Amino acid sequence: MWWGVAAALLANTLYSLGFVLEKRALTSLPEVTIRNPARLLRLVLGSPLWIGGSLALASGFGAQLVVYRTLPIAAAQGIFVSGLVLLVLLSARLLGEETSGRERYALGAILAALLMVVLSLKEGSDTVSHSAPYQLILLVCVPSLAGGVWLYGAAERRTRHRHRAPTTGVEYGVAVGLLYGVSSLGIKGVSSYLTSSGLGGAVAGLLKSPYPYLLLFTGAFGLVMSQAALQRCRASLIVPVCTTVTCLYTAVLGTLSFGEALPHDPLRLALRLAGTVLAVSVLLAMPKHDQPAPQAPPQPPIATKELTPP
How far apart are CA 23 and CA 18, in angstroms? Predict the structure, then answer.
């Protein structure tokens, strides 16, 4: 179990560093959009800083495989969400981003909600499952993917309105979070093949499962969608929203899909359910628009002397 905790903390560090490096690289690039994915990829692959961030994120996915082999899904999500604190600190230090008082209270409430989920866990009574019916995984994941892509498209259409208020990126975060939630279930499924007898049998079994194809879809769409969203919005807001949606999605639907039973003790069950409801409620109440930048006061006209002919 301690290997899983260490791997989760390592994944937190890699994810936070990767998102901040990508955000910093994107600020110096021309505007990217999902409507032109080829141009987006060409621009980001030409940035060494962005490549460094993407390598950090890929390493975080590798650490996540170890986590899902040793910890229950809900426990893993409780540790993953602690990375929000590091993300906000790095965003303030490296990106110069500031969060409003309302957003800080919201992030605090989200952390409290997910702490409830962690407190609902009990070592020895929570089992780590490694398999789920493929039909159930597809029933859960396909509508989630469709909903995430639709929500992102709706947010994109609103940004093209001429007189729109500047968006904070909550809709983008929710949309990308749904895709990453599906990706998290795919990683959980892939981790079940790591200890299969024989490399050939493991690869054959993996290719017959839906998990590698879910990861390919979420990897491709998540890459394009997250980069466009990161360029437009603050990383200190969009990444916590994305992380919250991903963690809640994985903790709730992953627990049910992989058959990791909910607590039988009434207090632990109440903590887990109350934490989920609180996190979703705070997410829905977060501000949808940034305050417009204050306009500079008009400068008084410069007085000019009237020239008189000699």
Answer: 9
Q: Which amino acid makes up residue 56?
A: A
Q: What is the pLDDT along the chain (310 residues), one digit of tens a residue?
A: 667 778 888 998 898 899 889 888 888 888 877 778 888 888 888 899 999 999 999 898 888 888 888 777 877 877 787 777 777 777 777 777 776 677 677 777 777 876 787 777 676 665 667 678 888 999 999 999 999 999 888 888 876 665 555 555 788 888 999 999 999 999 888 887 776 556 777 788 888 888 999 999 998 888 888 888 888 777 777 887 888 888 888 888 888 888 877 777 888 888 877 877 787 677 666 655 445 444 445 555 555 444 455 5
What is the end-to-end Cα distance of the chain in Å, rounded? 95
Contact 278, 113 (CB under 8 A): yes
Per DSSP, what are the bridge partners of residue 246?
none
Give the predicted TM-score (pTM) of the model.
0.76
Buried b / exposed e over 253-291, threshold 16 CB at 10 Å, is bbbebbebeebeeeebeebbbebbebbbebbeebeeeee
- 3-state DSSP assignment of residue 118: helix
- Tokens linked to 182: 């599906």
Tell me the CA distances in angstroms from 232 to 27, 160, 239, 290, 308, one per residue in order.
9, 12, 12, 12, 55
Tokens describing residue 236: 């200190």
For residue 289, the cross-strand partners are: 167
Q: Residues 180, 81: contact at Cβ < 8 Å?
A: no
DSSP label at 131?
-
Rounded Cα gap, residues 282 and 255, in angstroms: 22
Nearest to 99, CA basis, from 241, 222, 231, 277: 241
The values of phi and psi at residue 111, to 5°, are -65, -40
- H/E run at residue 168: none
